[in-house]
TrEMBL record:
Group of enzyme by EC: hydrolase
Region (Disordered): 1-32
GO cellular component entries: membrane
This enzyme's EC code(s): 3.4.21.105
Location(s) in or outside the cell: Membrane
Molecular-function GO terms, alphabetical: serine-type endopeptidase activity
Compositionally biased tracts (Basic and acidic residues): 15-24
TM stretches of this protein: 64-82, 114-141, 147-164, 171-190, 202-224, 236-256, 268-290
Keywords per UniProt: Hydrolase, Membrane, Protease, Serine protease, Transmembrane, Transmembrane helix
Protein's name according to its UniProt entry: Rhomboid-related protein 2
Pfam family, one: Rhomboid
Amino acid sequence: MGDNDIEEQDTFPVRMDEEGDNRGSPKRRGRRVEKFQKNFSRWMLPEELRETYLERANCCPPPIFIILVSLAELGVFIYYAVWKPQKQWITLGTGIWDSPLTYKPENREEAWRFLSYMFVHAGVEHILGNLIMQLFLGIALELVHKGFEVGMVYMAGVLAGSLASSIFDPFSALVGASGGVYALMGGYFMNAVVNFREMMPLLGVFRILVIVLIVGTDVGFAIYRRFITHEVGMKVSFVAHIAGGVAGMTIGYVFFTNYNKELLKDPRFWMCIVGYVAAFFFAVIFNIFLSPAPA
């Protein structure tokens, strides 16, 4: 009789712990994370890929690429805004034109500038716009597709932006990470359009309209600064926006629609890679032998 009493007393607190207030228990936290991932997958993936994602979903590794790139861009901006003698907080200043990171047509033989220009921005509104968009969209994409895929698309957009600008707007300078940001938007835009019926259709229209509105406003403002305003100093090209978006709608689309699939077996992947490499070599030859920009 005494043993039965002891057993009942031992099991009583365990039952209370399991059925009572256990909001901090690992099981409850796991359910919250699972619910978040389930809702998240509906935004980022078509229906046939969601189950696979949920089976392997985790935050390891975390979205480290887009965070590190954003911190580097912010650090460079603060450097030129605070430690250089200019009013860089508001608008363009002379400091960034003298930066070894800025792409300038007369310095195009310094090949690193075709990538490093993404770290230099032309004012507060410029860097805030890029950081907000790439963090908002890049973190979401990296949680699903991981850093390698997002990094490849982002850098492909940055390089495509500078190479296209050197061809179609050869006398203009280039600053900002818009090429990489537009590559992410282009890849997600194509994914949302192609899988429109499978990725929450009612909100699909909203996603597409938001991207179109942002792109239209930003490109319009870039064209206005390039052709209409008469600011003193070197003109900044807008071609990187368009080229980055095209890179995203091709390479980005292939990467972001091949979740859990082997890219090397996808003919679309090779078509995009061959096209990108061909355009790359054409741009290199153009800059070496044909560019009208000053040497």
